[in-house]
Amino acid sequence: MFDQTPKKFDRIVGILIQLQSKKIVKAQDLADRFEVSLRTIYRDIRTLEACGVPIYSEAGVGYSLVDGYRLPPVMFTKEEAVSFITAEKLMQHFTDTNLKKHFQSALIKIKAVLKDSQKDWIESVESKMAVTPATHFFNKDIPDALEILIESIAEKKQVVMTYESIEAEHPSQRTIEPVGVFHEHNFWYVMGFCHLRQDYRQFRADRIISISRSDKSFTKTHQDLDYYRQKPDTENKSLVRFRIDRSVSKFLHFNRNFYGFTKEIKHKDDVEMHFEVDYKNRGMARWFMMFADWADILEPEEFKQEVRELMTKSLKRMEK
């Protein structure tokens, strides 16, 4: 006899929604999502099958619904309905123009199936939420940059773009095979195989001057995005260590990751911080000067000299 407790019922409905939302769902992913054992997931799948839901399973691959089987949309809770507004506010400011329009169109369809009480909830909070981005994420002249990149990833087609890197004197044309997009340190980035450099590179979206679709297919089979983001890159990087007063260190938690933070060692009165720094730009030294009167550089000597040079230039400008 099946366990028909409310908790199990909610979980089984959730599993069914997952099966309808993806082509293939792995048992381990379901177990992780609902925080239960694999054995529990297997029992829940058998429950769905006993209720007439046609589920196809393949060992080592996962579960999927037989093609063509769909249930009407499950009604949303009021909390889920309000979450749509949060997503809409973020989409308005954190994505390109075309994706924002697509999301607004999808949201209208979602709102159409809501109960009147849920619509009232949405209207009551919609005007009470605001999102103000810190910067411009995309070139205003290319409103479909993110859309093109996502399509390229899905269809495995190359893209051609004109890109202005921070080191280059002039923009260059790049043909890339995008493997993923991600948002980090207040900017959107695309990771891709660059045919010009014959290696994987990441490109900041706001530095893309133009972008266009290509009919050429990918020439390589690429790993998932996380593989390239986690891949260690020690070329042209050096270890920087400094000790900073404990009272100030807590305010560096957000920005430090942007400068290659690797670890910290807490002492009685101060904190020792370690960074892997790329010396091709002086961003780290300029950031360090914001709190230099609270910190002592331990190594390397090159970093100390870099900070000294910036301080000297600053003093000379103030003496004019």
Explain the overall architecture:
With 320 residues, the chain is α+β, with helices and mostly antiparallel strands. The chain has four domains: 60 residues, Arc Repressor Mutant, subunit A, CATH 1.10.10.10; 49 residues; 86 residues, SH3 type barrels (Roll); 82 residues, Alpha-Beta Plaits. Helix content is 39%, strand content 25%. The longest helix is centred in the C-terminal third of the chain and has 18 residues. It is globular.
> How do the strands line up in the largest sheet?
6-5-4-3-7
CATH topology label of the largest domain: SH3 type barrels
Given helix and strand content, the structural type is: alpha+beta
Low-confidence stretches: none
Number of domains: 4
Short recap of the structure:
This protein has 320 residues and is α+β, with helices and mostly antiparallel strands.
Give me the secondary-structure topology:
Blueprint: H1 6-21, H2 27-34, H3 38-50, E1 55-58, E2 62-65, H4 78-94, H5 97-112, H6 116-126, H7 145-155, E3 157-163, E4 172-184, E5 187-194, E6 199-204, E7 208-217, H8 225-230, E8 237-245, H9 246-249, E9 261-266, E10 270-278, H10 283-288, E11 295-299, H11 301-318
Antiparallel strand pairs: 1-2, 3-4, 3-7, 4-5, 5-6, 8-10, 8-11, 9-10
Helix pairs in contact: 1-3, 2-3, 4-5, 4-6
